[in-house]
Amino acid sequence: MNALINTHNAVFDWIEHKTADWLLPTLARFAFAATLLFYFWNSGMTKLGDGISGIFTPSLGAYGQIFPKALEAVGYDISKLGLFHRLVVMAGTYAEFVLPLLLVVGFATRLAALGMIGFITVQTLTDLFGHGAIAHAETVGAWFDRFPDSLILDQRLFWLTVLVTLVLRGGGPLSLDRLLSKA
Fold it and tell me: One Gene Ontology cellular component annotation (predicted)?
């Protein structure tokens, strides 16, 4: 039995040694690009105002997504919200474009992944408390419940697992980080 265990350990130690540094970060970046890149970009697009100047004038929907209760409290009149609200909405909108792009190309990967973790944390808190998802058990979900499809707990655990992998491992060999480190 010891021979079998030793063989098992030797084979998988070799596989880990040969693949962990390049396979995990490359696969994590691919998984992010394949599943979340356009999710965040499409979400960011809903926050832009009309026309070319829309990148500087967030839409009413942007405020509604990020500050639902504050917007409702001022009767959906953006002009009654302060500079803080505008800056947060603009930063959140830009983050939905910039951070995913940085992750996909592998530039400042660890910082971009940390930024996305922060973004997803704020997004989750806004969904739970700002939009009232906390009152809907089917949306929040539960771990260990045999249903893997809740929008909050299940999905975002997978998102965060991919991002934590990138924080710990970096962008991998097919990244701008690696290319620039050799220059």
Answer: plasma membrane
In angstroms, the first-to-last Cα distance of the chain is 50
Please, what are the averages of pLDDT over each run of 10 residues along the chain (183 residues)? 89 84 94 97 93 89 93 93 94 96 98 98 94 91 88 94 97 94 80
Cα separations (Å) of 176 from 40, 77, 93, 129, 179?
21, 43, 24, 38, 5
CA 137 to chain centroid, in Å, comes to: 22
Burial class (CB in 10 A: 0-12, 13-18, 19+), 12: exposed
Rounded Cα–Cα distance for residues 100 and 112 (Å): 8
Q: What is the pTM of this model?
A: 0.89
CB atoms closer than 10 angstroms to residue 2: 6
Q: What is the pLDDT of residue 24?
A: 93
| Angstrom distance (rounded) from CA 146 to CA 142 | 9
* Structure tokens belonging to residue 9: 């350990």
What residue spans define the domains of the chain?
2-172
